Amino acid sequence: MLKSGVLDPQGKAIGHALESLGFDGVGEVRQGKVIELELDASDSRAAEAQVDQMCQRLLANTVIENFTIDIEE
Amino acid sequence: MKSAVIVFPGSNCDRDVAVALERASGVAPAMVWHRETALPPVDFIVLPGGFSYGDYLRGGAIAARSPIMRDVESRARAGTPVLGICNGFQVLTEVGLLPGILMRNAGLKFICRDVHIAVADNGTVFTGAYTKDQVLRIPVAHNEGNYFADDDTLDALESTGRIAFRYTTPDGTVCDAGNPNGSARSIAGIYSESRTVMGLMPHPERVVDPAHGGTDGANMFAGLVEALAG
């Protein structure tokens, strides 16, 4: 997800489109992306540590993006 | 001046910049495929424009992790001048050789037209053949050219003369009307701290011949040859 404070013109455009479809009461809209990974890891902690490194080094650009990690077994 | 142009899958301005470099220097640059791991001995490296890896993930993100980039990065850190044009600028920010990032254009549209930029600082090998505040007409062609960095970084770029070019109106005024993509402080190009790495979104290689409809980019290559030949 884009960090708060980083202008998100795509989110704004989505918000306007929702309004024009008649959805009322939509506040700020922010968009991001989801990346699903299959991992061969010994346990969820090891997996999370590995994915954290992947996010830091490639999957996210931390100049403008935050990331969260969900592990499913 | 011996130069190298890095070619990624999806680069599409590699030939244009090679022609511009050969015209200026008389020597054809080495075209180096991204899977290579070492560059030949060169005085100058270009990361060309295009859509490396289809802009997957983020513009320049995958190219920045390709094998040749390790050698490009170490040459850059050792002082070899590196120029990144458009997608090449995005790659340089993703590698960390330049600060900030190029975000989606504020207007959400791909912009392909001539813009005006002013030379904000000409004290480098890239811009020495221009005068400070000189206004150039150069094409842009990008979807992600909206330069962003935090305020501390922007202040540091400004106070140390590391803004290379700003978008302007045709008369050289820096203002929102002259800023095509929403870039912070109208930034069109920046230098590294060492001033030997430059990234810019406009395409100087597309205006080096009267048949191109303009020649404002020619002095970038002529100036590089003058500074680096020998």
Report on this model:
The complex is a heterodimer of chains A (73) and B (230). With 73 residues, chain A is mostly helical. In chain A, 38% of the residues lie in helices and 0% in strands. Chain A has helices at residues 9-20, 44-59. Chain B has a 9-stranded mixed sheet with strand order 2-1-3-4-11-10-9-6-7, sandwiched between helices. Chain B contains 5 helices and 11 strands; from the N terminus they run E-H-E-E-H-E-H-E-E-E-E-H-E-E-E-H. In chain B, strand 3, helix 2 (68-77) and strand 4 form a beta-alpha-beta unit. With 230 residues, chain B is α/β, with parallel strands linked by helices. In chain B, helix 1 crosses helix 5. The A-B interface holds A 6-7, 9-10, 13, 58-59, 61, 63-64 and B 57-58, 61, 65, 93-94, 99-101, 103-108, 148-150, 182.
What are the SSEs and their pairings?
The complex is a heterodimer of chains A (73) and B (230).
Chain A: H1 9-20, H2 44-59
Chain B: E1 3-7, H1 14-25, E2 30-33, E3 44-47, H2 68-77, E4 82-85, H3 87-95, E5 101-103, E6 111-119, E7 135-142, E8 146-148, H4 151-159, E9 163-168, E10 187-191, E11 197-200, H5 218-228
Parallel strand pairs in B: 1-2, 1-3, 3-4, 4-11
Antiparallel strand pairs in B: 5-8, 6-7, 6-9, 9-10, 10-11
Number of strands of chain A: 0
Largest sheet of chain A: none
What is the molecular shape of chain A?
elongated
Low-pLDDT ranges of chain B: none
Strand content of chain B: 15-25%
State the distance separating the first and last CA atoms of chain B: 7 Å
Order of helices and strands of chain A: HH
Helix and strand content put the structural class of chain A at: mainly alpha
Q: If interface size is counted as residues with C-beta under 8 Å from the partner's C-beta, which chains form the largest one?
A: A-B, 10 and 19 residues
Q: Quickly name the level 1 CATH class of chain B.
A: Alpha Beta
What CATH architecture label of chain B applies? 3-Layer(aba) Sandwich
Judged by helices, strands and strand pairing, the structural class of chain B is alpha/beta
One letter per element, helices H and strands E, the order of chain B comes to EHEEHEHEEEEHEEEH
Count of discrete structural domains of chain B:
1
The end-to-end span of chain A amounts to 24 Å
User: What does the radius of gyration of chain A come to?
Assistant: 16 Å
What is the average per-residue confidence, as pLDDT of chain B, rounded to a whole number? Answer: 97
